Amino acid sequence: xxxxxxxxxxDIKDGRTVKGVNFVSLIDAGDxxxxxxxxxxxGADELVFLDITATIENRKTLVALVRKVACEINIPFxxxxxxxxxxxxxxxxxxxxxxxxxNSAAVGQPQLINQLAATFGSQxxxxxxxxxxxDGKDMVYTHGGSRPTILETLSWAIEVEERxxxxxxxxxxxxxxxKNGFANELTNQLSTELTIPVIASGGGGTVRxxxxxxxxxxxxxxxxxxxxxxxxxxxxxxxxQLQAADIPMRI
Length: 251
Description:
Layout: E1 5-13, E2 16-21, E3 24-30, H1 32-41, E4 47-51, H2 63-70, E5 77-80, H3 86-95, E6 99-102, H4 104-108, H5 111-120, E7 125-134, E8 137-142, E9 147-152, H6 153-162, E10 167-172, H7 184-193, E11 198-201, H8 207-215, E12 221-224, H9 226-229, H10 235-244
Parallel strand pairs: 1-4, 1-12, 4-5, 5-6, 6-7, 7-10, 10-11, 11-12
Antiparallel strand pairs: 1-2, 2-3, 7-8, 8-9
């Protein structure tokens, strides 16, 4: 059985790690380079770096900062934010990223997914989906969660896989930062329908929440931010408790 993954996330704004609730009310959460080194040392399976204002500010991801982070870690590293061209991906991979995450640009020009997968391989391409419940349906949002779309989350996820994405990062905007648990029903829908891995994001607050997202949600990986940034949950302790609950972990 494949091991499940625990992934800390660095949401970057103005060169600093930030964290909010439901994508708003951001507060400073530390230096991303120092945090990346700490997580790599403390047993994280992977790291995600999201330049959360790059798309809104119509600019590329901070390549120099990506390079600094890459020099400090020895675990797989996914970078996202403002990626809309093949050249952007090439720059980030050269700077040390192992994978890239595309979101708004993929919605705006879905053919970009095909192009990136063909150029760099599906294993490098993560499509991030920010989802919010709207009139009883799970809908896709873009531009840092600020713009609604007409895309339903599950149908978009299926299209994303068909276009060559190697992985999906599913963030529930309704659960983000609440620490009340992941969106297990939605995560289960995607995990059941797709053959590519699904990373669950948004709402992790306790060990029980992680157990639930791996069992009820059938997630391949679980991503969290503030509980790790503010030392509320220790990564190795979390992984040991998950393994004790018969969830396969790399210890």
